[in-house]
Amino acid sequence: MQLHDLKPAKGAVRKRKRVGRGQGSGKGRTAGRGHKGQRSRSGFKSRPWFEGGQMPLARRLPGKGFNNKKFKTIYQIVNVADLANLEGEVNPAILKERGLIRKTTVPVKILGDGDLTNPLTITAAAFSRSAKEKIEKAGGQAIVQSAGRHK
Q: Are 145 and 109 in contact (CB under 8 A)?
């Protein structure tokens, strides 16, 4: 086999449709546009969503309503049990240093899972009620720092 012997598989290549080239072609006279009407004229153009005057799909479907998702504050979560081996003052910078959170820019929320024995002064954007109780019961302080709005 040589380069000049190569040809595409049978049925892989079709002949171009030549419209308006006589009756014998099967696409003569009206050139496949049917009879009369807006669509048969030259220069006809339709918007892709136009449905011939029928109520469009976008208007037939009901509205889906409002979603507050993009305004939600997302917190990095740290449990009281994770703070048990820390001492003194705890803030987002120290939590990041210890690998308990990933970023200092995203607000931190302290949750009350686990127990706390040593008194800590914890600064975070938010505290759960049980976490605050456990921190104060251990003789520590829970200081709320403004979280701002984050995604």
A: no
